[in-house]
Amino acid sequence: MIFETIKQEIMADPMNESYTKKGIPPLFKASFDARIVIVGQAPGRKAEATGLFWNDLSGDRLREWLGISREEFYNTNRIAHLPMDFYYPGKAKTGDNPPRKGFAEKWHPPLLAEMPDVETLILIGSYAQEYYLNTRREKNLTETVKKFRKYLPKYFPLVHPSPLNLGWLKRNPWFESDVLPVLKEIVNRHL
Question: What pTM was computed for the model?
Fold first, then answer.
């Protein structure tokens, strides 16, 4: 299968040699049947340790935002997961290090080429939005998310569902009332 071939190529890439030598596989999910692609930052420590993307409090909140169960999230082939880096980038002073530059540019295109029916890429956080929206982004993440409708149906920008963003969510009540119902409707339609 083509996705397994690409996975082996990712593991053989010198850029990922240190992970492959430690027996750490790239953490992503791609499917020919995908209709939605979730583009996050990079796996966290727990996700890498368990081999399961979004396997933390952020994932719980993301599934709530999407309006689907944990079982649906992991078992459907209609949702693909392509973070900006498929490996945990390590700890920074606050949070994790950013995804490595050049990773998504190299590996997203061949994977997306094998998912012809993808209709929406959910862009979680500034790294995904910077890469996919580039100069079409607003002046900051809040404004980009607020104007999410202008990017539909191809892109759906979101703030990261991290518990660290509780303050942002409280300061921006429009997110829950205006954005999440549309997100849930799109996800429901594709599942």
Answer: 0.96
